[in-house]
Every structure is written in C-alpha cells, then in structure tokens.
UniProtKB/TrEMBL annotation:
The modification N6-(pyridoxal phosphate)lysine is found at residue 197. The lineage of its organism: Bacteria, Bacillati, Bacillota, Clostridia, Eubacteriales. Belongs to the class-V pyridoxal-phosphate-dependent aminotransferase family. It comes from Sulfobacillus acidophilus (strain ATCC 700253 / DSM 10332 / NAL). This is Alanine-glyoxylate aminotransferase apoenzyme. InterPro entries: Aminotrans_V_dom, Aminotrans_V_PyrdxlP_BS, PyrdxlP-dep_Trfase, PyrdxlP-dep_Trfase_major, PyrdxlP-dep_Trfase_small, SP_NH2Trfase/AEP_transaminase.
C-alpha cells in the first residue's frame, strides 16, 4: 500500500527555505525541453541578464551554479584558490567558518579572523590583518551571516583588498533580493548566493558572478582546478556563447528561478528592500513589546534574519515543535555556539509579509503563555511600526 506522504501546509519562516510563490511552482511544472533547445537557451539568456540586474553587475560570467548555495561557495573557492595561497576568511558565524574549512580543504593557508558572534568586523581590523599578511591572495566574507543575524558593512573593503593584491569574495546567500547587493559598485570580485532565501525560489541553484580581475587570476593558475563538476572554465562554455554541453542544466529549476526573478522585477529592487525593512522593523517592535530580547544591536542587525534570545526556562525544541504542529509555522533554532539559545526568524522574499509576522507573534505568545510564561501582546507594537512605515512609504511612492 502506498504510504501517505502528503505535504502539509506550512508557513516557512526559518531562514530558508522561504515560502515559494505559486507562480514559481507553476513555472516549474512546465514541460521539460532540451537544455540545448533554442527555446530553453532564450530562457538561459534571460536568467543571466536578470541575475546581473539583482547582483548590480555587468559581469559577463554571471550564472546559476547547479546546486545549493554551498555549491556556489565551492565554485567560488575551488576556481580561485590554489594550494599554499594565503586566504583570509572573516569568521563571525557558521557560514564564515564553512568558507574557512572549504579553503583549507583546497590546501590554502587560511588566516581566520575571529569576530565574536553578533558583532561585525571593522575596517581597521581588516586593514590590520591585511598588513600582517602581505602575501594574501583572497579575502572571503559573509555579507549577511544567517547564523547570527548580523549585517556586515563592506564599504571601503574592496579598495583595501585590491591594494593588497587580493581578490574579494562575498557570500550574499541571505542578502540577494532582500538587501542591496551592488557587485560592481562595491568592488566584489567573486560572489555567490542561493535561490531559497530572499529570491523565494526552491533550493537547488546558486547564483554566481565573477569579474574580469578574477577571471584573469583563473587563467593564470599554476595548478588545474581540482574539481570536474565545478570547473568554471568548462562551465562557462555552456553559459557563454559557445553553448557547449558540460552537464545537463537543471531545466525545471531554471524555469522556477526565471519566474522568481520576473516577480522581483515587477516589484522593483528598491521597493523590495523597503518591504523587507518595513516587515523586519515591525517584527522587532512586536517581539520587543512582548519582552523578548533581540541578539544583535540595531546598528548592524539584518532585516532578512531576526535572532531572538530564548527566554530563561523555555525549551527551544518544545516551542518550535508546537509552532510547527499546532500552527504550521516553521522557525529555526540556533546554530553552533548559539544552538539552544536563540530562535532565528527568516524575513525573506515572500516571507517578508506583515500578516505572516502577525500570525507568528500571536502563536508564539500563546505557546509561551501555555508554558507558564505570560507575555504582553506584541501585535499592537508591530502594527504601529508597520503603519508608521506605511505612511512614509506612500510618500516615497508618490514622490
Ligand atoms: C544558507 C546559506 C548558505 C548555504 O546555502 P545552502 O543552500 O544551504 O547550501 C551559505 N551561506 C549563507 C550565509 C547561508 O545563509
């Protein structure tokens, strides 16, 4: 007898995957055609151009890597790191740690810059590290650290990194489509992202872009790229003009990504970033009115992931299980040193919606009340913040 594997109805408010709009799911249900069919290649072209638009770049080599965000990370490191290279990695959370590990596997001399969780790396700290390691070849940093909820400002970084003769690699997985990523203006050389965070497509592709400076480094490698699947010199033969087969493009995923990018175009990037900020600030107001404590100071708090301290005496798992079972809402627990201590709420893409946050606050308060922790309501504060923003937004739209 067939098992019942029906998919329940869920509100995905963990920091990925975020809710996927019906239009994207519908696009993925289209017939599969060949990856060299001119009709499909037209979609490929359009996806590449749309990705340039969200990345804020004119980079020729802009494409979705087959695989999740981590495949984008491997692509970024595998092609641009050689054994013995000095690679500086800013380690201010789980995803910085992951890049350090991946670079080590490639035989790099990794200089990990440890930043206490919840804090940012200053420009002074970066300059100090660069001065101490004059042979540095690459600097890697996470713009939006999903494990802590920290936004890492990167103004002035490119100038210093380029002056030191290094390439600048940026993880924009939890940023792209939710907060401004301006690859050309910010001087990023190698950039990767993922589809299931603020782009609101399913997991499975990793948007990626590199500039000529990085490609020049690639063309002068001493050692062959130590991966067959993620060899950019091969892959760009499909994504460039030659359209040569390397591996089969994940057709349906690309249909989905195209639709997600069309939705982003329709909304407009500036409006989209504003929506993320409006909904995040409303959520913060609501959580704080309930008496809950946010982990990251406002000055460098990410709008796309909110990290909340779990109140004393409350068990992480119990609350998250009840939210899922009783309300169909998924939020995430902490990772690494913050496991069991925090909750992480994604305000990403389709998830950045005031009614979703209202539902979450109501259900969270009900469950905490049941567990012997009566809290004030956060809904009025959330609403007030939202309305204040709405007034400003209508002026912004009119002006
Ligand atoms: C989610 C995430 C990744 C990894 O992406 P996967 O799709 O899970 O492979 C990398 N970096 C950051 C900052 C992320 O949030």
């Amino acid at each position: 007898m067939a098992q019942n594997l029906a998919i329940p109805s869920r509100l995905c408010l963990a920091p990925g995957p975020s809710p996927v709009p019906f239009r994207v799911r519908q696009a993925m249900a289209n017939p599969v055609i060949g990856h060299l069919d001119p009709a499909f290649l037209a979609i490929v072209d359009a996806v590449q151009q749309d990705l340039r638009d969200v990345f804020g770049t004119a980079n020729r080599v802009t494409l979705p890597v087959s695989g999740t965000g981590s495949a984008g990370m491997e692509m970024s490191l595998t092609n641009f790191v050689e054994p013995g290279d000095t690679v500086v990695v800013i380690r201010q959370g789980v995803f910085g740690q992951r890049m350090a590990e991946a670079a080590e596997k490639l035989g790099a001399q990794v200089v990990a810059v440890d930043i206490p969780w919840g804090q940012i790396c200053s420009l002074e700290e970066l300059s100090r590290v660069l001065a101490a390691h004059p042979q540095v070849r690459l600097v890697a940093v996470v713009m939006a650290e999903t494990s802590t909820g920290v936004y890492q400002p990167l103004d002035g970084w490119a100038e210093r990194i380029h002056a030191a003769g290094a390439l600048f690699l940026v993880d924009t997985v939890t940023a792209l489509g939710g907060i401004p990523v301006e690859v050309d203006r910010q001087g990023f050389d190698i950039v990767f992202s993922g589809t299931q965070k603020c782009l609101s497509a399913p997991p499975g592709l990793a948007p990626f872009t590199v500039n000529e400076r990085a490609l020049e480094r690639l063309s002068r490698r001493q050692h062959p790229v130590p991966s067959w699947y993620l060899d950019l010199l091969q892959i760009r033969e499909y994504w460039g003009n030659a359209r040569l087969y390397h591996h089969t493009a994940p057709i349906s995923m690309i249909y989905g990504l195209k639709e997600a990018l069309t939705i982003i175009q329709e909304e407009g990037l500036t409006a989209r970033y504003r929506r993320h900020r409006q909904v995040a600030e409303s959520l913060w107001a609501g959580l704080e009115a309930m008496g809950l404590e946010l982990m990251v100071p406002r000055t460098h708090r990410l709008t796309t992931v909110t990290t909340v301290k779990i109140p004393d005496g409350i068990e992480d798992r119990v609350v998250r299980q009840r939210l899922l079972n009783e309300a169909g809402i998924e939020i995430a627990g902490g990772l690494g040193q913050w496991a069991g201590k925090i909750w992480r709420i994604g305000v990403m893409g389709e998830g950045a919606d005031i009614s979703h946050m209202m539902r979450l606050l109501v259900e969270l308060r009900r469950i905490l009340h049941d567990l012997g922790m009566p809290l004030p309501s956060g809904v009025e504060a959330l609403e007030a913040q939202y309305v204040a923003w709405e007034r400003e937004s209508s002026e912004w739209r009119a002006g």
